[in-house]
Amino acid sequence: MKEIKTEDAIGSVLCHDITEIVKDQRKGSRFKKGHIIKEEDIEVLLNLGKEHLYVFEKDETMIHENDAAEILCNLCFNEYMKKSAISEGKIELTSTIDGLFKVNREELFKVNSFGKMMIATRQGNVPVKKGDKLAGMRIIPLVIEKEKMQQIQEKVQKPILKIMPYQIKTAGIITTGSEVYKGRIKDTFTPVIVEKLKEYGVEVTYHSLSLDDHEMTTSKINEALKQGVDLVLCTGGMSVDPDDKTPLAIKNTGAKIISYGAPVLPGAMFLLSYKGDVPIVGLPGCVMYSRRTIFDVVLPRLLAKDLITSDELALLGEGGLCLNCPVCTFPNCGLSKG
């Protein structure tokens, strides 16, 4: 830090706030610490009685917080993102589309454990809408070693963040249950699924009822696949009761079973499989009556064709207990932690 004449301060970085007081109008910072002094600022500063200023000494080995924020932003920035103007050394990113937000957690950890810098994001593997805030980044000090910023650029695999557009546009629903098939009770499951899919612009182009008979259900699934749907959802018949045949029916299609069961409540009896690149999903009864379940957690990933592994499903256990909050904030809650 050094004292220099105001007239000689163009391009220098202020070490302190400078307050402006206008009687009966305002009192506050006219220039904030870290401000880079421009030619047009000189007259204003002199009118504020500042003939000398305390500024950071110029050092070619250091860079200003604004420039450092740009470097951090470039580590994150990706398609379908918009960056804000720099404000007090910070840049924020927002989404330009509806889609699935992804975070490379290992690379994010590298940045945040490197020291003197930070990137904060919203939870990964969650749906975002156009205009949603994604992340903010800045360095902690006002200036930082240029070499340190070069090191983090070399160390991190970019981009750290990604938004995946939804690709699945059509779905088939097979509603299982002899009581529904024979008309003894009304099908209240299918309308719930249709509404959830509608939120993402997915059209149900195939729907059929099936008895609690695994051969019939397998046939219905294959029929939906032949019609070219992007996603198959089987509702009901997912428990361990002897007459619940849906898991066997899905297996008999030749689909690769990723997991039967998930550490999420509601939704433990969830089944995920793929036949080729088409997900075939078994939905437990809780999806019909619970506001949020395992289905809400995995649906955005399925629609973005983001392949889900059994390990990723196993990781859902931490935060996988829905607390049935009086006001639901999903996906901004622990249930969305993936």
TrEMBL record:
Catalyzed reactions per annotation: adenylyl-molybdopterin + molybdate = Mo-molybdopterin + AMP + H(+)
Entries under InterPro entries matching the protein: MoaB/Mog-like_dom_sf, MoaB/Mog_dom, MoeA-like
UniProt-listed SUPFAM superfamilies: Molybdenum cofactor biosynthesis proteins
Listed GO MF terms: metal ion binding; molybdopterin molybdotransferase activity
Protein name: Molybdopterin molybdenumtransferase
Gene Ontology CC, one term: cytosol
Record carries keyword Signal: no
Residue ranges of domain MoaB/Mog in the record: 172-304
EC number: 2.10.1.1
Broad class of enzyme this protein falls into: transferase
Similarity-based family: Belongs to the MoeA family.
Function field: Catalyzes the insertion of molybdate into adenylated molybdopterin with the concomitant release of AMP.
Coiled coil, from the record: none
Pathway: Cofactor biosynthesis; molybdopterin biosynthesis
Named cofactor requirement(s): Mg(2+)
Keyword flag Cell wall biogenesis/degradation: no
Assigned keywords, A-Z: Magnesium, Metal-binding, Molybdenum, Molybdenum cofactor biosynthesis, Transferase
One GO-annotated biological process of the protein: Mo-molybdopterin cofactor biosynthetic process
